Amino acid sequence: MGLTLGVDIGTASSKGVLVAADGTVLAQATRPHAVSSPRPEWFEHDPDLIWWADFRHIVAELLAALPAVPGGPQPIDAVAVSGIGPCLLPADAEGRPLRPAILYGIDTRATAQIAEQSERLGGGIVLARCGSPLTSQAIGPKFGWLAEHEPKVAAATRRWFMASSYLTFRLTGEYVLDHHSASQSVPLYSQRENAWIQDWCQQIAPGVEFPRLAWPTEIIGEITAEAAAETGLRPGTPVLAGTIDAWSEAAGVGVLQPGDSMLMYGTTMFLVHVTRTAYALANLWGPTGLLPGTNCLAAGMATSGAITSWLADLTATDYTTLTTEAAALPPGADGLLMLPYFAGERTPLFDPDARGVLAGLTLHHTRGHLYRAALEATAFGVRHNLEAIALSGEEPDRYVAVGGGTTGGLWTQIVSNVIGRPQQIPRHTIGAAYGNAFLAAVAAGNAGLDDIAAWNPVDHVVEPDPARHRTYTRLYAQYRNLYPATARIVHSLVEEAATERRSAD
């Protein structure tokens, strides 16, 4: 039957799927986990208690489903993994973690190091060499923060991992990072040369061995006897290099060729537009693509689904009730306008000190109004990012919507109404784990890249409502005005809070 297995490590949960050669999902598993935030603006994962433990539990659950597979238990032909990123997990020479992993751009602790490295290396030079600016998403400033604040850990660091590369290391013993993840490790990787920038690597992370590079679709090793004993996987099973979750998710919905765009509805909203050209834009990321010869323009909001989760917890209300109440309200939530920068903002602002703002609040507004305002805020953020992509001259041929936020229909409908473009919803919205299983099938020879259209066809299309698009265009202008109108006050509040924390320490 040609079985493949894909696992993805997310911000708040991990998922895995067992898939047949025709794309049929035979089993799936999910394991929730917590994000550690020991201080404001810090976000961390314990690699063994979350990444490796989640992987082992998910694999055990999927393997338990093998006896029920049509035709009986069969070997798994290949395994592929993905995870959040870019992250920094410092490790010793044997690959043992030295501290919890510092997560991607939602962790904004390295603001001072971003400024220092931008000045020392030259912000324009970094952008030209790496295709992306130095931001909270970058790995270099996280290394700089480690050297300044945890010098003993920095001095002991000999290797470093992201979620996917740590799993492949535990599975195969190979110290490898994929090109796409490396291209997000600003300022350590050359976008145009597809290689580490040796002089900057030595400056920023002296004494650290950098991993061998491979494309996400390459087989980089096999399951070792030790990993087989821990996971139940067959020794010798091929393992792919893996990559960052959004790009695996893009593969699972066929967003692989220039002109394709993906909107990823999750804890954070992420956008991927595949290009032929390698861009270097100051307000977006320009990483390499999943496949050799492709590039991307990428954008990411710091919070989106995280705000809806916060509201659900705050109001002690389930999502179904909140969605029903929000759907009954008109566009604009009866005069309520929100900025969704609850954890700073990534693209296109790159402002770690941005914060959420709620304008127009009255005593008549309800939890449903707040929920609708949050959905509209993230939709306005999507439009802001798409306009930044359009300034490059790129015009997406199609938009594919993925992620947990596509269920229910209200959020995707609001986004289509705001951007004025249709969104394709694929049959499977399982996420990056499904994309990993597909890439594993391609690497194992069970499928070709073009087979994704049969694996995961379009289920339906969300069409924009022209009248509501016109309404939202007027509201979008107000949204764009709200940030500059409040930024000075918000930044002063952030500084005041930081001063109070320093005094308390």
Radius of gyration of CA atoms, rounded to a whole number:
22 Å
Helical percentage: 25-40%
SS content category: alpha+beta
Could you list the spans in which at least 5 consecutive residues all have pLDDT below 50?
Answer: none
Quick one: overall form? Answer: globular
What is the gist of this entry?
With 505 residues, this protein is an alpha+beta fold. Helix content is 39%, strand content 19%.
Report on the structure:
This protein has 505 residues and is of the alpha+beta class. The chain has helices at residues 47-63, 111-121, 123-130, 140-149, 151-156, 163-172, 179-183, 198-204, 225-231, 245-252, 305-315, 319-327, 367-390, 410-419, 432-444, 452-455, 466-504; strands at residues 3-9, 13-19, 25-32, 44-45, 76-83, 89-91, 101-102, 159-161, 176-178, 189-190, 195-196, 212-214, 219-222, 238-240, 243-244, 260-264, 270-275, 295-300, 337-339, 357-359, 398-402, 423-426, 458-462. The strands form 9 sheets. It has a 5-stranded mixed β-sheet. The chain has a 4-stranded mixed β-sheet with strand order 18-17-16-21, sandwiched between helices. 53% of the residues are buried.
